[in-house]
Amino acid sequence: QVQLVESGGGLVQTGGSLRLSCAASGSIFSINTMGWYRQAPGKQRELVASINRNGSPYYADSVKGRFTISRDNAKNTVYLQMNSLKPEDTAVYYCTTNAFTTERGLTSRNYWGQGTQVTVSS
User: Fold this and answer.
1) How deeply is 114 buried, as exposed, middle or buried, from its count of CB atoms within 10 A (0-12, 13-18, 19+)?
2) Closest to 39 (Cα-Cα) out of 120, 122, 112, 118
3) For residue 112, what pLDDT is reported?
4) Nearest to residue 51, comparing CAs of 4, 111, 98, 92?
5) In the chain, at which end, N or C, are there fewer CB atoms within 10 A of the end residue's CB?
6) Residue 12: beta bridge partners?
């Protein structure tokens, strides 16, 4: 139905930056919110940032002032610019979206990417 492909993860030193990208494809009619979750070993998955179709962002307190989420509606793509990275940011980052498909019409559903590893060395 909807596929999400993340890119941009990798290894970076403390204080460095990474830019994550997530492109949605498939039988998309309309995308509502897009966002990023992360999950570190032994911890629950947490919402990092999200952005609605009008561009209004939300950030977890732990990343405010360091991360910036944006989206390109024409490309069905969401980005996460991560600056001033800390070791505690190390996790698998998952892209997610709530979207309508051409097949399902009035009911939107949540979709998830496979995840991309972000490792911040100390």
Assistant:
1) exposed
2) 118
3) 97
4) 98
5) C
6) 120
